[in-house]
Amino acid sequence: MTQHFDEATGRPARLQSEALRVLLDRGLVNQTTDLEGLDAAFHAGPVTFYAGFDATAASLHVGHLVPLITMRWLQKLGHRPIAVLGGGTTLVGDPSFRNDSRPLLSEAQIDENMAGIRRSIEGILDLEGADGALLVNNAEWLTEFRFLEFLRDYGTQFTVNRMMSFDSVRTRLDAQQPLTVLEFCYMMLQAVDFLELARRHGCSLQIGGSDQWGNIVNGVDLGRRDGRQLFGLTVPLVTTASGQKMGKTAAGAVWLHPDKLSPSGFWQFWRNTADADVAQYLRLFTELPLNEVARLSALKGAELNEAKKILATQATALVHGAAAARAALEQGEALFSGEEDLAEATHHLPLARLADGLGLLELVVATGFAQSNGEARRLVEAGGVRLNGTTVDDPRRRIAPGDLAANDRLTLAIGRRRKALVAFG
User: Fold this and answer.
1) Where along the chain do the CATH 3.10.290.10 domains lie?
2) Most buried in the list 16, 199, 204, 210, measured by CB within 10 Å?
3) 200-223: per-residue pLDDT in tens?
4) What percent of the chain has pLDDT over 70?
5) DSSP state for residue 237 in the 8-state scheme
6) What stretch(es) of the chain map to CATH 3.40.50.620?
7) CA-CA distance, 329 to 311, in Å (whole number)?
8) What residues have CB less than 8 Å from 236, skipping those under 6 apart?
9) Closest C-alpha to 414, from 218, 271, 239
10) What CATH superfamily classification does 341-425 receive?
């Protein structure tokens, strides 16, 4: 079907469903396989939908927040989410838009990672009641297949020609990097996930990041061959105003699990949002009414800092709960006013980072006090960076074990109001 757009607003015209109107207004839609069909499905009644999370680490990170928040909105509007933990697909590893193979994890590592991921999902989605979100592990069906049985049942449903046409595969091949048969089969497994969920739970929509488009389309096509109408929706890849991937630092991802990044450190990440990103982040990462988002986004100068505190507190409450968000706000306000020293670690880094040669500039970026090494260098050269209370003006400074206190921690401060207590372990 052809989708018509309103020339004044730039959004699809004649939308019937509140679900799509909310997602579009908040900037949570990148692509859909059939916008009009999905709109009609949402309007007709509750839609069961899913998003998958491979267990490649012991925690989700802020990059996963966009699909999770999309799921949360749809659940609030009466639709039922399924969060699929990739106990089966993680054994293979998604090659999408990667230039190298993912490390293969043992089943024990995957189980441990899934436990950490489950914690974050349980805090964002409502799992209670008959209509609560479902948590399922795709190992339930993927590990039951016999190899020849799988090839006979599904191998004829996919062509190598079509699979090689997807950007996620072409990116690896264009980089002249090997793509193993194991990885090549990943998109088949994800398509089978969609079909199995449709058969078991009546699931008709898959949500994923923009890098999952090819995998999602394969699942929709497999469902069509099984006589089912399935839909796909991708959420946007969020970048900062400077063009960087949102949430990536020199230390890696900004984690959702409190053992990887404390609620206070998580709050500070959002409080340090660049001015140009505040409006976008308020719309995406809070549940504030859009008129309030517009009011806060219009603030200028020092007043914009109030909007950043609201953003930080709302995002922290979403992930860690209201009580942790209030405590992080209180500590953050004291820290930014320069009135209190830190008692709780705000950031955690592996002790091995010191052996790898952690630079001061990397540390400044890792704590969110700068968006790039260049910005960190300017702060250091201007005399605005203090390490353990002492000003450091050498941008070549490396962090050594001797910089750590007895509890393997150090303090980093930018000016009078921005402070971090970094724990290594």
Assistant:
1) 341-425
2) 204
3) 999 999 999 998 898 899 999 999
4) 90
5) P
6) 18-235
7) 11
8) 27, 28, 29, 30, 66, 210
9) 271
10) RNA-binding S4 domain (3.10.290.10)
Give the largest CA-CA distance in the chain: 68
List of residues 6+ apart from 139 with CB closer than 8 A:
87, 88, 91
Residue showing tokens 């058969």:
199
pLDDT in tens, 388-403: 878 888 889 888 887 8
Report the CATH number of the 18-235 domain. Answer: 3.40.50.620
- Alpha carbon distance 342, 347 (integer Å): 11
- Specify the pairing of strand 418-424 against strand 347-349: parallel
CA distance linking residue 233 with residue 190, whole number of Å: 15
| Three-state DSSP class for residue 28 | coil
| Closest to 53 in 3D by CA, of 31, 68, 75, 70 | 68
3-class secondary-structure state, position 355: helix
Strands 80-86, 385-387: pairing kind: unpaired
CA pseudo-torsion sign 256, 242, 310, 29: negative
Q: What is the Cα–Cα distance from 54 to 236, expressed in whole angstroms?
A: 19
Structure tokens at 302: 């020092």
Residue 277 has a pLDDT of 94
Q: Which residue carries 């699931």 as its tokens?
A: 203
Inter-residue contact 169 to 214 (CB < 8 Å): yes
